[in-house]
Design a protein that fits this description.
The complex is a heterodimer of chains A (270) and B (260). Chain A is mainly alpha-helical and 270 residues long. Chain A is built from 13 helices and no strands. In chain A, helix 3 packs antiparallel against helix 9 and helix 9 runs antiparallel to helix 12. Chain A is globular. Chain B is mainly alpha-helical. Chain B is 78% helix and 0% strand. Chain B is built from twelve helices and no strands. Classes of the chains: A mainly alpha (270), B mainly alpha (260). Chains A and B meet through helix 1, helix 3, helix 4, helix 5 and helix 7 of A and helix 1, helix 3, helix 4, helix 5 and helix 6 of B.
Chain lengths: 270, 260
């Protein structure tokens, strides 16, 4: 049986295990063993600020996605079948649209002469176009949009399994709708919340396309630090060390969360 | 559940707005792609096919399109059999090591794509695979494998392995019984996995940015570079076509899934 899996395993070993291993090696070895690349991450402001910013943005994006995604997932389980298909289709279609295409759409929507600014000016709410893009705001909006399906799908998968009888039982015992929601539905949906928030947070930590295109060079997230060190400065060691710290952060998060929710349940959504 | 209370109305409006937020950016590119002007005004002053003509008439865009489709097609041709074989092994083996193998095969979903991209770039730079077609295809096979495996493992879960046992007890060897008995029953999940691997290869951007070059640049790399410089409406036309292709493929996958 192992033989059957070996061609796929070989591809994985050569194209991801070896490259990541190489990256890790390069981060500590340059004409001899050195921790210089790691020291720099903690001592140079541009590095640790980028890490701090990345964690802040990821936290914000995760919270926003939960706030927007939870009601949607709940609605998809509460409405009649026909409507839930419509809701899920509206979640899944953007999911299968290229990230690049969606970043482009937001660029067009949010720019100075974009649809949003024109609309607000038409309504007379603003006189001058707002700076909605080429900054952190634009990055966050587009990232929330791109990652929202990763929140809704695990939430929906969990909520769908919550038996309706439980809520009815709660109601028949005199619980108000809000009471049964807070005391029965919400606690039972927590595994989905954990799966969705983990997935969104971790994906956001490594996001590259949206901060690069919509951040206007000011929103320097960790992934951009990696790419600049490779493309502009030819600092492979520095890029590798940043990459290793990012990867370790992601793995630690998965390990901790994996103790509470099976990992394949989180990754099954992707 | 039928009463119209204020909180319920607020909830419905909120959900409608979030769904609008999800779908509107995906749809907005369509009218933009048919605009007659270079400036992104909405609604467009007049309709035209100008940007589609620009796209089709441009040799560089056309070359990139050919690269994208060749890469996606080759990726599916390689990733599908590899993924099906691995999924079959995962589902039928009781070896403990298989759990580890399964986890390793999911690695492309765990490792942040920027790290994968830079790592592959470092290795390719050593072995001379940068800016080659084979390098691009290999990377996309790796990225597409988890989709095929996840889909086929799920398909095999609802398949009763006793049927294959029957075929084998009647004298078929394992390979023949797989093709004659098992494969026809899991073909919807194989197709779904293959389609998702295709879409993944078609949309892949970050790895391509680092490892592709010269005449073997996929569409997404050219789009990314163009977007960094200016907002060219030609990209709206290309985006519309790419999105239409994705939707069509997802539609095929979901109807097939339902039929089986």
């Amino acid at each position: 049986m192992l033989a059957l899996a070996s061609p796929a395993l070989l591809v994985i070993l050569l194209l991801i295990v070896l490259p990541v291993g190489w990256l890790a090696w390069q981060s500590v070895y340059h004409d001899g063993f050195t921790l210089e690349n790691y020291r720099r991450i903690f001592s140079e402001a541009i590095y640790w600020r980028s890490f701090a910013l990345t964690f802040q943005i990821s936290l914000l994006v995760t919270l926003l996605a939960l706030l927007l995604g939870y009601p949607i997932a709940y609605a998809a389980t509460a409405v009649p079948k026909g409507w839930s298909v419509v809701i899920l289709a509206l979640v899944i279609l953007p999911f299968w649209t290229s990230v690049l295409v969606r970043a482009y759409a937001w660029l067009a929507l949010l720019q100075r002469t974009g649809v949003v600014n024109q609309f607000l000016q038409y309504l007379g709410i603003i006189d001058e176009p707002l700076a909605l893009v080429h900054n952190t705001f634009g990055t966050v909006v587009a990232t929330v949009h791109i990652l929202l399906p990763f929140m809704v799908l695990p939430l929906y998968a969990t909520m769908q399994k919550i038996p309706h009888d439980l809520m009815q039982a709660g109601a028949s015992l005199g619980g108000s709708p809000s009471h049964t929601f807070w005391r029965i539905f919400l606690p039972l949906s927590l595994p989905g919340v954990l799966a969705g928030t983990t997935l969104v947070f971790v994906l956001c930590l490594g996001f590259y396309i949206t901060p690069e295109l919509l951040g206007g060079g000011r929103t320097l997230m960790v992934s951009m630090l990696v790419s600049r060190n490779v493309e502009l400065y030819d600092q492979w060691g520095a890029a590798s060390a940043v990459g290793v710290v990012l990867l370790v952060s992601v793995l630690v998060i998965f390990l901790i969360v994996g103790r509470f929710v099976p990992l394949d349940r989180i990754l099954g959504q992707k | 559940m039928k009463t119209l209370s204020l909180p319920r109305i607020a909830f419905v409006v909120f959900c409608a707005l979030v769904l609008l937020f999800l779908i509107l950016p995906v749809l907005i590119i369509v009218p933009m792609s048919f605009s007659s002007t270079r400036f992104l005004t909405f609604p467009p002053p007049a309709l035209s096919l100008r940007w589609y003509e620009e796209y089709i008439g441009n040799a560089a865009w056309m070359q990139a399109t050919r690269v994208t489709f060749a890469v996606a097609a080759l990726t599916v041709l390689i990733a599908t059999p590899l993924g099906v074989a691995a999924a079959y092994a995962i589902s039928n083996s009781k070896l403990r090591v298989m759990r580890i193998v399964h986890m390793m095969l999911m690695l492309p979903l765990v490792v942040p794509i920027i790290i994968t991209a830079v790592g592959i770039f470092f290795v390719y730079a050593k072995v001379g695979l940068v800016a080659t077609m084979s390098g691009l295809v290999l990377a996309n096979v790796m990225l597409g494998l988890p989709y095929v495996i996840t889909s086929v493992v799920a398909g095999l879960q609802s398949f009763d392995p006793a049927q294959e046992m029957v075929a084998r007890s009647l004298g078929m060897n394992r390979l023949r019984s797989f093709f004659a008995v098992t494969l026809p029953q899991i073909k919807a999940s194989v197709l779904t996995g293959a389609i998702f691997a295709f879409i993944s290869a078609m949309d892949e951007t970050v790895v391509g940015l680092f490892i592709s070059g010269g005449q073997y640049q996929p569409l997404t790399k050219r789009m990314f570079t163009a977007l960094r410089d200016e907002i060219d409406p030609t990209i709206a036309a290309i985006s519309t076509l790419m999105t239409a292709a994705s939707f069509l493929l997802v539609l095929i996958a979901s109807t097939r899934q339902k039929n089986s």
